[in-house]
């Protein structure tokens, strides 16, 4: 299977929003946008000069299967950005798609924005996401409870 990254469009934002309403995804991925209108507004903001977020689609053999993005991009802050990802095609879970996409995306985003450190949060019980991060060189920095759920913060960079 060949994993590549593609450009986000209004159409992919609509597809992603619909697919990410899956209860299995909602259980492991907090979502900022509560409506399709909010999702489209967030996307439009990524197109503006100086945007603090950047995303790509994830393609498996040319088929759109998920999204990956950085937010809170600020090369002068630590970490320089936060990473998030979602493979919405359940048939591709635990097959290395997110791991490979994350590697491709991190190379691109770090080069594009001059990122030296990137952080990521995941729920502690989301072992698949933790594996994706660890396979891409992220180190577990701390565990904490938030809204009654154990979460983890990972980071890459700063010599880690």
Could you describe the 3D structure shown?
The protein has 160 residues and is an alpha+beta fold. It has one domain (3-116): 3-Layer(aba) Sandwich (Aminopeptidase), CATH 3.40.630.30. The protein is 32% helix and 31% strand. The protein has helices spanning 10-19, 23-26, 36-46, 97-113, 127-135, and strands spanning 3-6, 54-60, 63-71, 81-87, 118-123, 139-146, 149-156. Strands 1-2-3-4-5-7-6 form a seven-stranded mixed beta sheet, covered by helices on one side. Strand 6 (139-146) and strand 7 form a beta hairpin. Helix 1 crosses helix 3 (36-46) and helix 4 (97-113) packs across helix 5 (127-135). The chain is globular and about 35 Å long. It starts with a strand and ends with a strand. The relative contact order is 0.15. The mean pLDDT is 93.
Please outline the helices and strands.
Blueprint: E1 3-6, H1 10-19, H2 23-26, H3 36-46, E2 54-60, E3 63-71, E4 81-87, H4 97-113, E5 118-123, H5 127-135, E6 139-146, E7 149-156
Parallel strand pairs: 4-5
Antiparallel strand pairs: 1-2, 2-3, 3-4, 5-7, 6-7
Helix pairs in contact: 1-3, 4-5
């Amino acid at each position: 299977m060949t994993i590549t990254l593609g450009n986000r469009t209004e159409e992919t934002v609509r597809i992603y929003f619909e697919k990410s309403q899956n209860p299995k995804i909602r259980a492991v991925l907090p979502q900022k946008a509560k409506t399709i209108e909010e999702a489209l507004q967030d996307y439009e903001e990524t197109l503006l000069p100086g945007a603090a977020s950047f995303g790509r689609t994830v393609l498996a053999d040319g088929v759109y299967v998920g999204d990956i993005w950085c937010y809170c991009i600020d090369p002068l802050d630590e970490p320089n950005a936060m990473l998030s990802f979602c493979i919405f095609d359940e048939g591709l879970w635990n097959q290395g798609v997110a791991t490979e996409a994350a590697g491709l995306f991190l190379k691109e985003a770090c080069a594009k924005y001059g990122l030296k450190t990137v952080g990521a949060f995941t729920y502690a019980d989301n072992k698949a996401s933790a594996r994706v991060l660890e396979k891409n060189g992220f180190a577990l920095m701390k565990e904490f409870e938030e809204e009654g759920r154990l979460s983890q913060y990972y980071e890459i960079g700063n010599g880690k």
